[in-house]
TrEMBL record, chains A, B, C, D:
Family: Belongs to the archaeal-type GTP cyclohydrolase family.
Catalytic activity: GTP + 3 H2O = 2-amino-5-formylamino-6-(5-phospho-D-ribosylamino)pyrimidin-4(3H)-one + 2 phosphate + 2 H(+)
Organism: Natrinema limicola JCM 13563
Annotated EC: 3.5.4.29
Pfam assignment, any one: GCH_III
Keywords associated with the record: GTP-binding, Hydrolase, Nucleotide-binding
Function: Catalyzes the formation of 2-amino-5-formylamino-6-ribofuranosylamino-4(3H)-pyrimidinone ribonucleotide monophosphate and inorganic phosphate from GTP. Also has an independent pyrophosphate phosphohydrolase activity.
GO molecular function: GTP binding; GTP cyclohydrolase IIa activity
Protein name in the entry: GTP cyclohydrolase III
Amino acid sequence: MTNTQVTLVQIDNYGPWTVTPEPRREADLQTMQSRLYADISQFVGNRGGYTFFTRFDNMIAVTNGLDREDHALLQESVGNRYPVTLSLGIATGTNPVQALADATARLQEAGSAQDKHRRECLEGRVIDEPYRADDDIQIAHFDVINATGNYTDELNAFDTFIEIEQGYAELMRHMRYAHDSLSFFVGGDNVIVVCPDLEAADYEEALAHVEEAVDVEMQVGVGRGKSAHEAGFAAKHALETCRADGTRVELEWKTA
Amino acid sequence: MTNTQVTLVQIDNYGPWTVTPEPRREADLQTMQSRLYADISQFVGNRGGYTFFTRFDNMIAVTNGLDREDHALLQESVGNRYPVTLSLGIATGTNPVQALADATARLQEAGSAQDKHRRECLEGRVIDEPYRADDDIQIAHFDVINATGNYTDELNAFDTFIEIEQGYAELMRHMRYAHDSLSFFVGGDNVIVVCPDLEAADYEEALAHVEEAVDVEMQVGVGRGKSAHEAGFAAKHALETCRADGTRVELEWKTA
Amino acid sequence: MTNTQVTLVQIDNYGPWTVTPEPRREADLQTMQSRLYADISQFVGNRGGYTFFTRFDNMIAVTNGLDREDHALLQESVGNRYPVTLSLGIATGTNPVQALADATARLQEAGSAQDKHRRECLEGRVIDEPYRADDDIQIAHFDVINATGNYTDELNAFDTFIEIEQGYAELMRHMRYAHDSLSFFVGGDNVIVVCPDLEAADYEEALAHVEEAVDVEMQVGVGRGKSAHEAGFAAKHALETCRADGTRVELEWKTA
Amino acid sequence: MTNTQVTLVQIDNYGPWTVTPEPRREADLQTMQSRLYADISQFVGNRGGYTFFTRFDNMIAVTNGLDREDHALLQESVGNRYPVTLSLGIATGTNPVQALADATARLQEAGSAQDKHRRECLEGRVIDEPYRADDDIQIAHFDVINATGNYTDELNAFDTFIEIEQGYAELMRHMRYAHDSLSFFVGGDNVIVVCPDLEAADYEEALAHVEEAVDVEMQVGVGRGKSAHEAGFAAKHALETCRADGTRVELEWKTA
């Protein structure tokens, strides 16, 4: 059984800020957002977690291994260095989608994302250290088969992007509604998926679905671990096996 | 008539680098990619251009106002500060998709994105200063109507993301194939579109198409200018008018 | 008794890299150095430590609370994101100067700072968690009395800088040779000093010495703690007391 | 004749901000300051200028080639991305110390560095493009002879730092009072000096003075150019000649 700790990271009242007193330069907003994301990714990542940029104003992180003090420190540190502040909602569970729904609900109860009086909320609970297990997290790392040869070196850069984006859009919906999983595009032709307790057959089904729906061929490595990094690292190694052996689904964990 | 200068920014041999000698920590890759993007956005942006993160290993920029020396300086500066290098393809034209296709072709002719001997290529031509015009660029800035009230404060964060992502995926395909435009998600519920010479009716058609196809209601502000910043800034102001007046399409430029 | 854990952070073979194959743009070197420092400051700082930029190619950190795995992770993360790599020497002791000397010796034994075969060394030992104590670190935070009124708003910016620099140079030498302490300029008119077990009289002596030698009047807040952050935070509060009450030396810790 | 354009960059009301409502974490301040410096260095640097971190809350830049719009854009961009704002004073002249004094005076007249109502001032004038000349800037790049062999690989890291710091402190004072020059430590064992129209004999005198006063042996490469980058790049090449040939002073410019 997985036990995923999910943190919703929301920039407080961000939309209004971007146009107050008048619209801010887009390049500055892009720079600020992506550096803020990079900092959070680094903070969470060097404690074993993963952060996904998602919509940038709402980021989603897998934070097993981070306690409430860590979350509070992240808020404080961002508040000291950026012109915006963060609210954080945390929840845990065997089903990542449900955990995220709970984390979201906690922030929604605290106030609207555009409520200017809701600032630096920290809501929810973490998995206490004694309750953490070696297989709390399951991560699947998908990529597009021979994306460089089939797309990047052949199509124009936008059409390649459309192909990959289409594969991602289909995969994200399917994994969410059929498999209670959270899928995130992470650059290139890579999608990282935070999963509950899925099996090889589930991934085979998902690959077949995407191929049929949008004609994009993908492969996937899957890993388990105590943290997102551990699970994700095993998934990367499994994906290397796909690439080397031409297989479509590889799972890398000690069998139960 | 628009005359868009497009630059394709490609990290050299990036895929192989991310797994050599073995897979690198995902959080570090995410941090490095997004900071690299932020730096390019800043460099291009403070010369009046726009950069879109796209796939991160392939970024697309609108670079009217930057000459070849500027591009070369960007390459040199990134090469001095990052563990990776950039190749750049530049092209111009009335049709942004065609311009990007040309820019892509120039890099593809120079070598594969995963050719380790293709490093720091700089290919293509810019619009010389005397040939630049005040209406070279047309930018449309879309957002989702009442995204915070309808989605962010109501659905869980991932389902909100799916809705926005779906609207984006449909819009990007439609604008590319029906209107020769390049659409980029820029965070929150915002999509920036680099367009040829489109009219209000074209945007109305696109909004109707997206609403019918995926049931996402959007609005759009459109601007023209000599640079991406000028056009995009006018588009932002036009979008503020939509928000204030409840209109769906606003164009902000002096009519010809 | 203090027990300071000191880490010497050395960029591997940096001097030669800056001029290979020919001198690199100074602005890029400055950007890269200061961002690398910022990242290390953030990594160490959000684990309770302090990092000082010192010479940039050689940085000095107080790392109580960071174990060898943390140090290794810092090396790995920097190696994944920068064009340069780090070697780290760690040592501990009641005398910060001696600890730094030991940390330095470990790196020197591993090879020259300009030996291109010495890369990513990690040498030395940390204080194991059970041996850490609440008063392991003593930090003194000095500033110049009314620097803004006496200097910044009166002299030209360089002459102000000379005054502050002179105060710092005298303080750093005196604290090192008379009090076995490591002093670091941290911006503005602030100097942070990592001390052994000093008393109020020692600080009074130091202030008097600096005033006599170079005619710069300073004040100092001193704190103790389990980590650099705890001690430094107490020192900052003590310095606020100096500012409020017009005193010259304030110590903030529970007396033994 | 040189004609140096100097910009004083001052963070508005920074001291009070760092302790409001209570002292902020030192590691965050260090991170924020050094990244802000890095961004300014990059902005100014990719327009041919040099920025020196100096005291971090007051930075000094050589900005030949940047006009008032560039300065205003820097202010706007920083204001959009940081929790602090910048005021800028600009002045020009044949004597860099006098230019800096004028730039400082303009900001001082606008208000105190700790006046909370003085925000984002932009004062002073630049050299208009037609008046710029190929030899407007003279830069000298000093380093310590065999610093790695004599110090870094021999002494502990702090004693090495004291030696280099002492050399710098002596050089900065001497160059300022004897030669109207602004000297900045830029990391490692390097000092960059912004000079008026000095000759080889002046540098020989300065080297002799430093050696006699504090027993630190330095060498220096000197360059001229239209911008800080051009002059500094020539200086770096000249310094490479010193290193290769064992000479102490090298000037690299086309003789008048």
